[in-house]
Prior knowledge:
Layout: H1 3-17, E1 30-35, H2 46-64, E2 68-70, H3 81-90, H4 94-103, H5 117-134, H6 150-165, E3 169-179, E4 184-185, E5 199-208, E6 215-221, E7 232-235, E8 240-246, E9 249-254, H7 255-261, E10 269-275, E11 283-285, E12 292-297, E13 309-312, H8 318-330, E14 343-344, H9 352-359, H10 369-384, E15 386-387, H11 397-410, E16 414-420, E17 434-445, H12 449-461, E18 463-465, H13 470-479, E19 482-484, E20 486-487, E21 502-503, H14 512-516, H15 519-525, H16 532-540, H17 545-552, H18 556-569, E22 574-578, H19 582-596, E23 605-609, E24 612-614, E25 617-618, H20 629-636, H21 638-647, E26 655-657, H22 659-681, H23 691-711, H24 716-737, H25 742-756, H26 761-770, H27 792-815, E27 821-826, H28 829-841, H29 844-852, H30 855-858, H31 861-873, H32 885-903, E28 906-911, H33 918-924, E29 933-936
Helix pairs in contact: 1-26, 2-21, 3-5, 8-9, 9-10, 10-11, 12-13, 12-19, 13-19, 16-17, 16-18, 17-18, 20-21, 21-22, 23-24, 23-25, 23-27, 25-26, 27-32, 28-29, 28-31, 29-31
The structure holds one RNA strand.
Amino acid sequence: MDFRAIEEKWQKKWAESGAFEADPAAGRKKFYLTAAFPYPNSPQHIGHARTYTTTDAYARFKRMNGFNVLFPMGFHVTGTPVLAMAKRVAEADPEIVSIFKNIYKIPEDVIPTLNEPVKLVDYFSKEIELGMKEMGFSIDWRRKFYTYDPEFNKFIEWQFHKLKEKGYLSTGAHPVPWCPKDDNAVGAHDTQGDIDPEIDEMVLIKFPLKDPPDESVLCATFRPETIYGVTNLWVNPEAEYALIELDKNNYWVSSEAAESLTLQFPQLRKLKERKGGEFLGKTALNPVTGAAVPILPASFVAPEMGSGAVMSVPAHAPYDYLALRDLERAQKQYAIPQPIQVLKLDGFGDFPAKEIVERMKIAGQSDAKAEEATEEIYSREAHTGVMVAGKYAGTRGAEAKEKIKADLVSECKAIVIHEIINGPVKCRCGARACVKMVEGQWFINYNDEAWKAQTRKELAEMSIVPGKARADYEYTVGWLKEKACTRARGLGTKFPFDRTKVIESLSDSTIYMAFYTVAHRAKKLGAQKLTPEFFDYIFLGAGSAKKAAEGAGIAESDLSAIRSEFLYWYPLDSRHSGADLIHNHLTFFLFNHAAIFPEELWPKQIATNGFVLMEGSKMSKSLGNILPLRAAIRKYGADIVRFSVVSGAELGADSDFNQAMADGVSSRLKWMASLIEENCARKGEGAQKKAIDAWLLSRLHRRIRKITRDFASLMLREITQEAFYASINDLKWYFRHTEGNRETLSEFYRAWVLLMAPFAPHACEELWEKMGEKGFVSAAAWPEADESRISAEAELANEIVEKTAEDIAHIMKLTGKKPSAIRLFAASPWKRKLYSIARNEKKFDLAMKKAMEDPEIKARAKQAGKALQLLIKDFGGLKPSVPSQEEEMRALSDGAGFLEKEFSAKVEVSGEGAEASPEARARAEKAMPLKPSILLE
RNA sequence: GCGGGGGUGCCGGAGCCAGGAAAACGGGGGAGGCUUAAGACCUCCUGCCCAAGGGCUACGCAGGUUCAAAUCCUGCCCCCCGCACCA
């Protein structure tokens, strides 16, 4: 079977016939599902294929179940990453060129042409679309749009008007990572090494100098509660310091800090500069305790961090302790102060910093282990430490920290700044990223309690797959606060209330599923005609239809047709994405639907999936193990890739893609295809029907029933196990018994092709056609489980034969005997009675008592006792009912031909008690229900 | 720290919610078959012991409940993910 040729053939046929273009059809039940649209800043890899294949298999399943299925796709181009990437291409950044060339195999002459955001987006979106088509995704491409399309912009503007009307938008100041050189906000994609700058609050405590008293040193700290333990201040003697004026106060900070702090305090003015060394030996005053503390030199103080000066708490800060120890060893000029305890920490004495430094044998302040020690002590003191100094003595470290911080600020003894805490983070231009307070920042108020309540209601009513993820959504709904929703640059939609800003990317992709339903209509009308009244009417049925129709320049009847089109598809039946979007996009999706749409149009389900691993490890650019989707298709074929990415694990878990597994899928698929082709070409009826035919069909229908049920909760791994591996193993077992009956096989193959069609649609279309079926298998009816074919008896009969065969093989192996004849004895009827007594009574003595009431059993009390012991021991494994001796003999006789073939020996079946010799008798007595005794001769 | 998920053979992982033959299914490894050979394919084996289908050991650790615990309960240890304004 030539997978690639077949794929092309059917993709062409689907496209030509518009097989997946979905329009409203009166009276026909619909199913509308979407997957998170891709961000085209690079080609997609097999990891992306998982979400889309999951969605597509589900779409195909629903379609085969008679639903009118809509599965659209678009492209998300909003935001700054494409800007950064195009810029890097324009500058021929060797790293990005290498990734494009070596990982994504982009032709070398193409790479330099991707030097503008729009060109980049255009190239990659086409690449992604092609890949999706090559995967055979049943997408209605007529509805495709980009988030910078003017029609979409109008839609997003409308959305933000709605949010504003509801009072969900606000403005304020907001700290963002900033590059002072580029004068721009920086995200992870703008930094060297793709480091995401993390911002946290830092406290700058004012330590007035003894002389002159109107100047203070600002000391930066994350632990204001340790103010009681300050023994001295640290400055870096090599650094430059500046006296700044801020809100009528004069402070000393490092010159670097003076620069970066202007981003947070534009009113700040620099007065004069001085070398750090000049402070040494001076004295400052602790603003809380009033203690006089000396200013000492330390090399670990980074001038660019915080204010470039810090307070020293040697009892609790390993760096401070180390710097003091270093200083003591280096000179005799300064007196070395003694540590002062602030917190009590279990497992430590009065000075935890000193202890950990000694325990870890840290050499000095430049030893890398100092960082580790700091983290350990900080974390433990915050969570388990208890204050022993100051007015909050007795409270926990973390609690005291917040209280003392608030006190210092309200008493004007400290100011709060924001700092990048995982720094230094460098912008790609080389400058160090700082924090800027952006004024006039717009927010979406996800902290609104009434809104949260609505969202919780929506969530409670919807289906979450896998169910385990529900707690994640609940938690996220709870902790979401104001979300900054605009940025200074990027592709997308201009913010309607401040056109100098662009709506940020996670905020313009929350209700776009509604837009798909009318995207092709909107495009035809053109952006100018898409007035707020138009959207009000078609999405909410609000306002005047007449006015909306006039604005759109269409007849009222056409407008209401668009409205009905939306109402036909909405609400969304299933939303699909990677599980990583739960904490942002998917929860925003819930919030925005709750805010804008009436309850009956809220989404019904969200399904999220884990990642795809490559040969057991996470795909990453640095490992170079990213498998681009189109390369995978060329290597394995679309059906193999599709099957592999969804069959490896259930949705909630990460799934591994590996060569061995793909090869296994490929060879099995080829084997099935060749069998089906052979069966089609077959003349005559083949072998006669036997017990095993009924067994095969029983198993088949049982599987159909299970698969159909499992689709409701998208248990794709379970489904693929059943439909593929387990079914194929059944078939192999069947062929060990018989050459195959044509009618049985035809029924089996037809159902198998239908069951596999959602996963391997190309091969299944081809086989469907070969079987002489009309139309697309993609549009064929899903098979129904025929309950009358499901036979527990047939399956049990086979199980007896199978187990017996295993036992025979085991005995042969142990004894090394190669029998010429095998005699099987089915257990006597009285043992079957004993079996059910054992099962009902559960305990030996009770069961024995009960058994003795039966004269037939009582007559063989000794033998029965032994048999009962065996049964009770295995109590948990006893079946609710066992076949009669005759039934068991029939099952064994049906399987006799098979056993004869397997063991090349004559097989004779009889009931226990029919044996001739005493030797045979002794053997036969061991027979138990479902476990015939075996005599090898 | 907070929230979530998870520790089962050589590996990936079923089984846990609804306690009752643990290791399904897929890999990897081994033996044999087919084949000129390789590959593909087929059969068997892959915790330990076993000369008649048997026995013993095992689901992170330690307890508990139960006739019966991977599964339920308690405590502990360890690993992974998220904690944003970024797609």
